[in-house]
Amino acid sequence: MTENQSFEQQVPSLVRVEDRVLRVAVATSEHGTSLSPAGMEQGIAALRAAGPEIGAVLLVGEGANFCAGGNVLGFAAAEDRSAHLLDIANLFHDFVRELDEAAVPVVAAVHGWAAGAGMSLALLADIALGGPGTKMRAAYPSIGFSPDGGMSWTLPRIVGQARAREIIMTDAVIGADEAVRLGLLSRLVADGEIQSEALRLARTLAHGPTSSYATIRSLVAGSAQRTLSEQLDVEAAAISAAASSPIGIEGVDAFVEKRRPDWDSVRES
After folding, report:
1. How many Cβ atoms sit within 10 Å of the Cβ of residue 265?
2. Alpha-carbon gap, residue 246 to 171, rounded angstroms
3. How many C-alpha atoms does 28 have within 13 Å on its Cβ side?
4. Is the N or C terminus of the chain more exposed, i.e. has fewer CB atoms within 10 Å?
5. Nearest-CA neighbor of 134 among 190, 201, 197, 172?
6. What per-residue string of b and e applies to 132-161 under the rule 16 or more CB within 10 Å gives b?
7. By C-alpha distance, which of 100, 76, 6, 88 is closest to 39?
8. Which domain covers residue 129, as residue numbers?
9. 206, 226, 242: which is the final residue of a domain?
10. Contact present, 99 and 149 (Cβ < 8 Å)
């Protein structure tokens, strides 16, 4: 039994591994495609257990939508609503932290609605694919709540503080084309092809120069806290280290030899 097979057998039902891609179902048709606590729990465990056999993460919704937000009926039924929401938010945020700390690209297949927690998750992805029928909505003000899942952190960094406040406070419904224009989605594909195209993309990334992707994620994430001069120093150190890494050596050698880089063989050696 290989290391990858052993890992796959440990993955619960809402999480599975497909060709180096860790697929996490963040919502199911149960409770109207609301955020799945089981998906969060299983996703956290899988992300913490994942090693070099995982090259990308794919976030999907199983049902009519990517994720239509939190389970509001569950909120209403809770004996202590504040304690219940705190538990849900903490679980959700543990998942968000694991995604943020992952060294591999995160792809989201955003079909139907991405509302509330679903919009927060879409904003966290490195690449979020949608379709003509995709709609996004902050949704929190409609039930008198404020955002969770990092929306108040990610959205201002994508659209600016003023526009972020407007989008969240007015609870605007953002159509697919507008979501791409604003940078909330990366690009659109046919509605029926969102998950298949997202999986294809995630597989491509999973078999690519993963150490390069890890550094790219780190550089971009840290750029907001650095001056340009500081960022240049970090970039110089990173590209210098890449030059003598197995991935960097293979990439340069393949270019000189006029062949496609064989990233998988480098990882396995």
Report:
1. 10
2. 48
3. 11
4. N
5. 190
6. ebbbbbbbbeeeebebbbbbbebbbeebee
7. 88
8. 3-206
9. 206
10. no
- Residue at 171: amino acid letter: D
pTM over the 0.70 mark = yes
Number of helical (H) and strand (E) elements in the chain, helices listed first: 13, 9
Give the residue from 56, 38, 146, 168 showing the smallest Cα distance to 109: 56
Mean per-residue pLDDT of the chain: 93
- % of the chain residues with pLDDT over 90: 91
- Cβ(73)–Cβ(22) below 8 Å: no
Amino acid at 32: G
Residue 162 region by backbone torsions, left for phi larger than 0, else alpha for psi between -120 and 50, else beta: alpha
The 10s digit of each residue's pLDDT in 122-151 is 999 999 999 999 999 999 999 999 999 999
Q: Of 206, 239, 258, which closes a domain?
A: 206
Strand-pairing partners, residue 98, are none
